[in-house]
Amino acid sequence: MATQTAAKPAKANILQAINAAIADAMEADDNVVVLGEDVADPEEGGVCGVTKGLSSRFGDARVRSTPISEQAIVGAAIGASLVGFKPVAEIMLMNFTTVAMDMIVNHAAKLRFMSGGQTHVPIVIRTMTGTGFASGGQHCDYLEAWFAHTAGIKVVAPSSPRDAYGLMRSAIDDPDPVLFIENLPTYWTPAEAPEKDHRVPIGKANLLSEGNDVTIIAYARMIQEAMPAVAQLAEAGISAELIDLRTIAPWDRDTVLASVAKTGRAMIVHEAVTPFGVGAEIASVLNEELFGKLKAPVKRLGGAFCAVPFSKPLETAFAPQTADIAAAAKALMA
Amino acid sequence: MTNRAVPDAGTQIEIYRRMALIKANDERSRKVIMTGRLVMPYYSPRGQEVIPSAISVNLTDEDYVCTIYRGSHDQLAKGLPLKDLWAEVAGRTTGTCKGKGGPMHVTYPTKGIMVTTGIVGSTMPIANGLAWASQLRGDGRVTVANFGDGAANIGAFHESLNLASVWKLPVIFVCQNNEWGEHTAYDKTSNVRVADRAAAYGIPGERVDGNDPFAMYAAAREAIERARAGEGPTLIEAMTYRFHGHVFGDQDAYMDKERKARAMADDPVPRFRARLIADGVASEEQLAEMEAGIEAQIDEAVEFALASDFPGVEELKRDVFAEELN
Ligand SMILES: Cc1ncc(C[n+]2csc(CCOP(=O)(O)OP(=O)(O)O)c2C)c(N)n1
Ligand SMILES: [Mg+2]
C-alpha cells in the first residue's frame, strides 16, 4: 500500500485484520491450528466471526470447535504445542480465562522453566473483552494485570488493525505463550489496513504523537479516548506525547522512560481497575528510574474499583474517558 | 473377559524388572531423605509398581506420558535414567530439568515424559493435546494420562474425558486408585466408581486389579491398541493401595491399620517375583542378580547426583522465555 501514494489507503477493521493474520499464518505454516468454542464455520467462525472462513479454507482438522470446556481448550493447546504445533486457542471472553487459570498460569507459563528448557509452549490465547456493550459484571473485564504478573507469559493488546495483524503474526511466531487481548467494542472500527506478512514486534510500543509536556501511556480502547484528549490539550497549549503500549508484558521500558525523561510528567490510562494494575507497575518503574527528574507525581487513570456495572451511565463512567484524560493531564501541569 | 492378551515370558521379566526398580528406588529415596542427605517433597509410589510397569511394556519411547507429583514409578517405567532422576530431585544442574523442576516436575521428552504436574487433575487436559497432535499427524503414537482417584473429582477430568471422546483422541486415562487422596479415603468422596464414569462420556471404562501384572497388562494393551487404531480413548481405573502416607513425613495415622497391613502383606512386588519363579519364567539367581544390578545403578545415581553442581543463580533468568531475561 505504501507505494501506491495516489490511491486511497485500503481500510480494514481489527476483526478482519486478526482473521487475515491467522489465515496468513496458517497458509505459511501447517502447524498453526485453531481451537475454541464456535470457531469453525458451521458454528459461524466464533460469536463475532473472527475466525470465519478458516475451517472452510484449511479444513476441519486444523480449525476445531470445542465443547464449552476452557481447561480442556487451553490444555489441548498446551499439549499440542509441546510437540511442535502452534495452536491459536480462543477463550471467548476474558472473564472466562478465570476457569482456565491453572492451565494458563501453572502450566503454559511455567513448563519451559520447570523443564529446564526441554519443552516450551508456543501457544496464542485469543480473548475478547471491553466495556461499552452493556454486558455487565462478568463479560467485559480487563484482567491483563493477572497475566502480566505471571512469569512466562506475554500479553499484548493492540488498538488498531495494523497492530492487530502485526502482533498476531508475531504472537504466532513467538516460541512462548502469548495472551492476545482483543477489544470487542472496537472490532468494527475501520482504519488503515495492514500489509500482508507485516510484523509488529512484541515488546515495542508505538509513539502515536510527540509532545513535550506530558506523556500519556495507554493501550487498547483507551487509545481512542486519549487521541481526542491530546488534541484538546494542544488547544489548551499543552503538548502531550501519546504512547500506545501495544505489548503489556514485557512492556517497552526504553520508549516510555525516554519519553518521560523528556516530559517529566506521566499518566497511565487503562480500562482495568486502578489498584494493583499495569499503571501501578509502570508508575513504580518511572519512580525508580526517574526520581528527581519528575515534575509531578505519576498519575494513574483506570476503571472504577467495582464490578463493571450494567446501567448505561454507570458503565460509561466506569472507564476513563477523553474528558477525564484531558483533565488529569491539565492537573499534572498545574 | 476371555482371550485377553498375556505377556510372554520375556515381557513378564521386563515388567518385574521395572517393578523391582521402582520399589528399590522408593526404598532408597526414603532412606536418603531419612538420613538427611537430601531434602525434597517426596510422594512414595510404593504399592503402585505394577501399574506403570505393565502399561509401559506396551509403549515405545515415542509414546507420551503425563504424570503427577507421585510419579517416579511412571517415569522410571517409561525409561527415565536413574542418574537424571536423582540429579533432578537433588536440584543439580545435571538433572533432567537442570534442577529447576524438582521431583514434582520431572520432564524427559527423550522418553516421552512430557509433563509432570503438581496440580491435581492437570495431566488430563494436556495429555489430550499431545494425543491431538498425534491424531493430526497420524503418527500412531498414544498418550497415557496418569492421575489419582482424588483427581477424578476435579472438573478437568470431566472436561478432558468429554473432549477426548468427542474428538476420538488416542489417549489412555489411567486412574491409579490407591484409595486415598491426601488424608481422605476414596469412598468418602465418591459414590460412583471411577471406571463407571466412562459410560457418561461414551468411552470404554474398565476397573482392573492394578496390582495384578497380567490383568493390568491386558487392560493396558487393549486400550493402547484401540487408541493406535484410531478408536479413541479408554478410562482405566487401576485398583491399588498406597503403602505410605501421602507425602514423606506424613505419619498416616488416619489410615486403617488392618487394611494397610493386609495390603502390605500382599505386596505386589514379591508376589509377582514368587510367581515368576513358581511358573519357571525366571530363576531365583536370575532375579537376585537383576536386583543387585538395580541397587548398584541406584548407588551410582545417588553418588552422581550428590556430587553434581547446583545450578548457578543466572538460571533464574533463563527458561522463563526463549530469550534470557535481562
Ligand atoms: C488442584 C489441587 N488441589 C489440591 C492439591 C493438594 N493435593 C495434592 S495431592 C492431593 C491428593 C490427590 O489424591 P489423588 O488424586 O488420589 O492422588 P494420589 O496422591 O493418591 O496419588 C491433594 C488434595 C493440589 N495439588 N492440587
Ligand atoms: Mg489417591
From TrEMBL, chain A:
Protein's UniProt name: Pyruvate dehydrogenase E1 component beta subunit
InterPro entries, sorted: THDP-binding (IPR029061), Transketo_C/PFOR_II (IPR009014), Transketolase-like_Pyr-bd (IPR005475), Transketolase_C (IPR033248)
Domain of life: Bacteria
Chain ranges of the Transketolase-like pyrimidine-binding domain: 12-189
NCBIfam families xref list: PRK09212.1
Lineage: Bacteria, Pseudomonadati, Pseudomonadota, Alphaproteobacteria, Sphingomonadales
Residue ranges of the TM segments: none
A Gene Ontology molecular function term of the record: oxidoreductase activity
UniProtKB/TrEMBL annotation, chain B:
GO BP term (any one): pyruvate decarboxylation to acetyl-CoA
InterPro entries: DH_E1, PDH_E1_Alpha_Subunit, THDP-binding
Cofactor dependency: thiamine diphosphate
Keywords: Oxidoreductase, Pyruvate, Thiamine pyrophosphate
Boundaries of every Dehydrogenase E1 component domain copy: 18-311
GO-annotated molecular function: pyruvate dehydrogenase (acetyl-transferring) activity
Reaction catalyzed: N(6)-[(R)-lipoyl]-L-lysyl-[protein] + pyruvate + H(+) = N(6)-[(R)-S(8)-acetyldihydrolipoyl]-L-lysyl-[protein] + CO2
Keyword Oxidoreductase included in the entry's annotation: yes
Pfam families with a match to the protein in the record: E1_dh
Reported function: The pyruvate dehydrogenase complex catalyzes the overall conversion of pyruvate to acetyl-CoA and CO(2). It contains multiple copies of three enzymatic components: pyruvate dehydrogenase (E1), dihydrolipoamide acetyltransferase (E2) and lipoamide dehydrogenase (E3).
Protein name: Pyruvate dehydrogenase E1 component alpha subunit
Species in which this protein is naturally found: Rhizorhabdus histidinilytica
